[in-house]
Automatic annotation (TrEMBL):
Topology of this chain in the membrane: Single-pass membrane protein
Occurrences of domain Protein kinase (ranges): 1-233
Protein name: non-specific serine/threonine protein kinase
Subcellular location: Cell membrane
EC number(s) reported in the record: 2.7.11.1
Entry-linked PROSITE patterns: PROTEIN_KINASE_DOM, PROTEIN_KINASE_ST
Keyword Protein transport assigned: no
Top-level lineage group: Eukaryota
Protein's UniProt keywords contain Chaperone: no
GO cellular component: plasma membrane
């Protein structure tokens, strides 16, 4: 893809002294990417004859085209799944061997041989938290049982601005583009409200219990509402 993968945009923005800051993702670009990925998962899970579980959703597998539209790639671990109807919900799972990337694998994969669409939702939740904190789930900060989720939860909702990716807050106005300038004009309380909503979606998608996770279509609706709040006075 012309603009590479999401991992490079999130984590390879460091520059040497005296060098102009490299391009980085704006608030609205991140929101659009989050929505693109959610819609891709919804398509895989619910719009084919057989549900498909990606099994390895992470930033390096989110590819960006010329228009910065996100596409989910690398289906090397993807699995077709059968659908089983239970009393409480529709569940999709398969018993093929479990693989994935550390930090993005849902906890139930460690005790059960089945993959599920809820597992992809977990990975998506971790991805969201990473996109808006700028921290990988494998960051050295997370030790002694702490995770990216617990890191965010500890600051949610009152201290969330303390953990927002600092690259969302430009340090030098000379390098602002139009989207950045617009983001700077957003009312602080409105921005905090939207960040709280974003982190809430990320936390609910990455719940330890698969049954407690937000449905991907609900996440899509939530991000649509978040964009509306930011764009409207």
């Amino acid at each position: 893809m012309p603009n590479g993968d999401l991992d490079k945009w999130l984590h390879h923005h460091f520059v040497t002294q005296g060098e102009a800051p490299k391009r980085r993702l704006t608030m609205f670009q991140r929101l659009n990417i989050a929505l693109d990925v959610a819609e891709a998962l919804d398509y895989l899970h619910h719009h084919g004859q057989v549900p498909i579980v990606h099994c390895d959703l992470k930033p390096s597998n989110v590819l960006l085209d010329d228009d910065m539209v996100a596409h989910v790639g690398d289906f090397g671990l993807a699995r077709f799944v059968h659908k089983a109807v239970s009393n409480s919900t529709d569940e999709c799972s398969t018993s093929v061997g479990i693989k994935g990337s550390i930090g993005y694998i849902p906890p139930e994969y460690g005790v059960d041989s089945r993959v599920s669409i809820e597992g992809d939702v977990y990975s998506y939740g971790v991805l969201l938290l990473e996109m808006f904190t700028g921290k990988r789930p494998t960051d050295s900060l997370f030790q002694g049982g702490q995770t990216l989720q617990s890191y965010v939860a500890a600051c949610y909702p009152d201290r969330i601005m303390e953990i927002v990716d600092p690259t969302l807050l430009p340090l030098d106005n000379r390098y602002l583009n139009e989207l950045d300038s617009f983001c700077n004009e957003i009312d602080t309380e409105k921005l905090k409200e939207c960040m709280a909503s974003i982190f809430r979606v990320g936390l609910q998608c990455s719940q330890e219990s698969s049954r407690a996770r937000m449905h991907i279509r609900t996440a899509i609706r939530e991000f649509g509402m978040i964009k509306d709040v930011l764009l409207n006075d």
